[in-house]
Amino acid sequence: MSQLQINKTAATFTSFNNHLFAFGSNTFGQLGIGSKSDSNLPTRCIFSNNPKDIFDFPPKIIVGGGNHSAIITHNEKSDSIDIYHRLILPEELSSSSKINWHHVTCGWTFTIATTQKGTSYIFGKGNFGELGCGKNVKTTNDQIFKISEITNFQKVVCGLRHCIGLTKEGICYGWGSNRYGQLGLLIKNLKEGEKKKKQNDNYCYFTPTRIEIKQINEEEKIIDVACGQNHSAVLTQGGDLYTFGLNKCGQLGYASPLKIQNCEIPRKVFNLPGSVLKISCGWNNTLLGKKNEFDEIDDTLNEKEGWVSKPIPLYFLPHTLSSLSKDVEIKDFVCGSEHSLCIKKNGEFYECFAWGWNEHGNCGTGNNIDQWMPIRIIPENTIIKGIGAGCGNSWIWTKK
Amino acid sequence: MTSFYDEIEIEDFEFEEDKQIYHYPCPCGDRFEISVEKDIARCPSCSLMVRVIYDLDDFQDDNDQGTTIDLGKESIAV
């Protein structure tokens, strides 16, 4: 990043009181910056047509899916939700101040939002059972749909075509596509004749189905789940990690893709030097946070054939991201589709780093060149409160 | 040198009848699109493309009298 660009970024950050900035892919206006152009520098988000309307409430969570994004904002009275583009929230839900939203996840053509109490509402469409409301529900239109069987969700997360809901008791339920075993449910055994009929039905689960995770240690409570494009990761209270689904890039973290292409049984990832505190999945990678350290499994730094013309090794076993120096506190990290962001503590300040695919400027560096190493993307002396990422785009929220 | 983001089986694509195209998600949020019989799907919003893998059985009718498409005949310049 040139000094000019840094100054420009600094100017952007200091001239507004607003807290949320976005950059990256924006074909359908999913960045929320008031245009449909990509931005390769952090750009202030606009929350209404009136530019003077300053967004007062800090975001609690912001996520992106296929050409849409969702945000939960927090104020003293309630946690409200906004979903940008393609999806219009039914008025009964958007205007209701009674609902406190806790978590939101964006899939390819759908969004699932979970309330503080534990009810999950579904918006959008999905042909693979992603909506979880039975075989007949493939689009929600303007109607309100919720997962009626389970009312104590802690969160629901989703990949491209599959969803995993974690209850407050630590039980996982999956629905959607299980084509690569990403729901951890057994792939249905079908006779030859059945296979030909309707392919989706062969591997799709249309209602929440309990995922059995056979733990090696004594039964520990499951505290977090994360989903990639076609794989999933589950974290236990003791810091054990279980992965399942597609292993095309080694994203399961225990075997070469040449050896295991996909696995429908949740398996523990060994070779971890310590217990895991936090997980996040990109489309084809998995990031793990440990105390004072940071691991990545598989196509690390997006070193994957595709946008480079040289052969790149895949990392199919966890290894530490040494470029983010040790002995610093990693406050948070998040994976976008093919890029990642993290917040690192440096003295009194937090610094934000980004790396990976950058065709849409989603690393916020001021250019569109892929970042092979984590690069600091915003000036010092800014208090970074949080980060979010979606499909080729990113968000940073800051406090002056 | 051409390189592909991924290789995706045709049965993972969704078919849009109105436009007569197959599409699959692109990591930028848009979609890789191809019309029938092509083997390279491109995203209109970025430079990425995927190679489409065909299972020849998919092109046979249930009564097994369908024709099989010879994919080798059509070479696509990239």
What is the fold's blueprint, element by element?
The complex is a heterodimer of chains A (400) and B (78).
Chain A: H1 3-14, E1 20-24, E2 39-44, E3 59-64, E4 69-74, E5 79-84, H2 91-94, E6 101-106, E7 110-115, E8 120-124, E9 145-146, E10 153-158, E11 162-167, E12 172-177, H3 192-197, H4 199-203, E13 204-210, E14 222-227, E15 231-236, E16 241-246, E17 262-268, E18 278-281, E19 285-290, E20 293-298, E21 315-320, E22 330-335, E23 339-346, E24 349-356, E25 371-376, E26 383-389, E27 393-399
Antiparallel strand pairs in A: 1-2, 1-27, 3-4, 4-5, 6-7, 7-8, 8-9, 10-11, 11-12, 12-13, 14-15, 15-16, 16-17, 18-19, 19-20, 20-21, 22-23, 23-24, 24-25, 26-27
Chain B: E1 6-9, E2 14-16, E3 21-25, E4 31-35, E5 40-42, E6 49-53
Parallel strand pairs in B: 1-6
Antiparallel strand pairs in B: 2-3, 3-4, 5-6
Structure in words:
The complex is a heterodimer of chains A (400) and B (78). With 400 residues, chain A is mostly beta strands. Chain A has one domain: Methylamine Dehydrogenase, Chain H. Chain A has 4 helices and 27 strands. In chain A, strands 2-1-27-26 form a 4-stranded antiparallel sheet. In chain A, strands 6-7-8-9 form a 4-stranded antiparallel sheet, with no helix packed on it. In chain A, a hairpin with a 2-residue loop joins strand 23 and strand 24. The longest helix of chain A has 12 residues, at 3-14. Chain A starts with a helix and ends with a strand. With 78 residues, chain B is mainly beta. Chain B is 0% helix and 32% strand. A 3-stranded mixed sheet of chain B has the order 1-6-5, with no helix packed on it. Chain B has a 3-stranded antiparallel sheet with strand order 2-3-4, with no helix packed on it. Chain B is globular. Mean pLDDT of chain B is 75; it is low at 60-78. The A-B interface holds A 25, 27-28, 30, 64-67, 108, 127, 160, 179, 196, 199, 229, 283, 305-309, 337-338, 357, 359-360, 390-393 and B 1, 3-6, 11-12, 14, 25-31, 45-48, 62. Chain A: RCC repeats lie at residues 18-75, 118-169, 170-238, 239-292. Chain A: It holds the Pfam family RCC1. Chain A: Keywords: Repeat.
